[in-house]
Specification:
The complex is a heterodimer of chains A (234) and B (255).
Chain A lengths: L1 H4 L6 H16 L3 H21 L10 H40 L2 H8 L3 H38 L5 H9 L4 H27 L5 H31 L1
Helix pairs in contact in A: 2-6, 3-4, 3-6, 4-6, 4-7, 4-8, 4-9, 6-7, 6-8, 8-9
Chain B lengths: L1 E10 L2 E11 L4 E5 L6 H9 L6 E6 L2 E2 L5 H8 L2 E4 L11 H12 L4 H14 L15 H13 L5 E5 L7 H18 L2 E6 L2 H7 L2 E6 L2 E6 L1 H6 L3 H7 L3 H14 L1
Classes of the chains: A mainly alpha (234), B alpha/beta (255).
Amino acid sequence: MLTVVFTRPRKWNIFFRRLFEEINGIGINSLPIVALMSTFIGGVISLQTASNMSSPLLPDYTVGYITQSSTILEFSPTIISLILAGKVGSNIASEIGTMRVTEQIDALEIMGVNSLNFLVLPKIMAAVLYFPVLVIFSMALSMIGGWMALVLSDLSTTETYLFGLRAFFEPSNINYALTKTVVFGFLIVSVASFYGYYVKGGSLDVGKASTQAVVSSSVCILIANFLLTQMILL
Amino acid sequence: MIEVKNINKSFAGNQVLTDINTSFEKGKVNLIIGQSGHGKSVLAKCMVGLHEVDTGEVLYDGRDFTKMDRVQRSEIRQEIGMLFQGSALFDSMTVEENIMFPLSMFTKMTKGEMLNRANFCLERVNLSGKNKLFPDECSGGMQKRIGIARAIAMNPKYLFCDEPNSGLDPKTSILIDGLIKDITKEYQMTTIVITHDMNSVIEIGDNIIFVYQGKKWWQGDRKSIITTDNPEIMGFVFASEFMKEIRSSMREKRG
């Protein structure tokens, strides 16, 4: 399937138009859910860390440090990707699956259009290009959420939290997170497209394909996360 | 002209088409008829490459489609228009965008030229002014006509229509049949219609192929199908009591 997807588009202007549509559809439209999740989970991470720090040997800025490292290393790239697997993956599988059962894909093929290239390549490129933007946005909002939760609960001060965020900061962790995100974006879209494109039957089967796409892409993300962590961090 | 030579097709060991040999002539409405499940849609899908044949050849004016790779097939497919049973219009596009889609993919026309062509095709199917509607805002008959407009947008040499009358009332069916017939004559296309609608058979069938149990059982025109004594054809054409009465009264008249 992927060898047919990654062929030269017949017309670049149509490809770029489709790419921007997909960036809007699967990227920009995901901003609200990413913002909501990131802010609240950032807040919860910092509150739980603060509530579990009973040892006087641990400095106060530890809360900021743990929020920063857990957000950058795991929460933003992996958890947000799992959420996107649910939102974007099901959307892609049902969109392409519906096109399959209503013969729209056959219509493309009969016209001489490479349907896999036309439908799937812009989605993969949109995910690979825009998911990192979403993850950086998520990192920022998660840390802001942590700060709001701590300051509003009087558990820490802004200065201490900011000091913790900057403490032991490793810029390479950002590269690691973005590399993971690119891989996850590719997996989400390609797995969902596979289930949608090869669906057989009617609307019920499109629903099943959509569910299978979410489950399979989530499992792929978890396995890829483990392998990438082994390869990059260790 | 499209020639089909010794086509065999099976699915998971179940033989669906057996040694089909026939030809479809230019400028004629060629019908593939038969009962549901006897292989007529599979035959059409084999001809356009949506199913791969097990053995056999499909020749488009002498060019063997079955031996071609994806790129070569794409070239031939630009000469094919197809009307699908469910119309298969792109539901995210307006009527006008649906018709302009193949033009934008395969021609160097400007937007104005594509728009003119779309308007011409819409006028040809009596749907002028419906440019900005979306497919779900159109009736079944309108969707079929938009499907025809999209199919003829590229001036195809070959037109395939998969059950163009399914789900339509008799009056709209006659309209669609007439449109297919007129377009075929006007543009001298090789038209293939898959149907089990007897009105279509009588109205537009220049060349009729009857597929029975995956084999080409009979071939003729709309006059000979009425008079044939082939029992399987009679069972198909004169399935209803009404048609049986018509046949017996025709025979009585002939003495």
